Amino acid sequence: MKSLSRIASTLIVVACLAGCATVAGGTNMLTDERIVAESAGALGLAPSDLALLSRRTAGTNTYATLRGKDKAEYACVINGGNLLSFGMVNPPTCSRR
Fold first, then answer.
1. Distance CA 84, CA 67 (A)
2. Is the CATH number of domain 2-96 3.10.450?
3. Which residues are within 8 A (CB) of 36 and not within 5 positions of it... i.e. 6 or more apart?
4. Distance separating alpha carbons of residues 63 and 5, to the nearest angstrom
5. Which of 17, 31, 33, 81 registers the highest number of CB atoms within 10 A of its CB?
């Protein structure tokens, strides 16, 4: 009986976590302009020096691919920018591709 209770508790926790990720992904407030601005700051570039090529949101993270005026491409991950974080974001993590 104790193991059945433990399994039920585990399933409830997993369902809640999955629900949080769905809410976070569905309420993403990051505009393309904000993604470029946040990423430019992390890369030490001006926003006008970057173009957003693609973006994808999964849970609380937004994954963006950007291209600089020098044709260099960057992959950035921005955490936050959704209802669960009240629109706030952590500094992006960017790397050259």
1. 29
2. yes
3. 47, 50, 51, 52, 66
4. 38
5. 81
Q: Please write the tens of the pLDDT for every residue from 41-88.
A: 999 999 999 999 999 998 889 999 999 999 999 999 999 888 878 788
> Would you kindly state where each structural domain of the chain is located, as residue ranges?
2-96
Place of tokens 């993270």: 61
| DSSP-assigned letter for residue 48 | G
Is the model's pLDDT at 16 over the cut of 50? no
Distance CA 73, CA 52 (A): 10
**pTM of the complete model beyond 0.90:** no
User: Given the structure tokens 């173009």, which residue do they identify?
Assistant: 51
- Torsion from C-alpha of 29, 51, 48, 83, nearest 10 degrees: 10
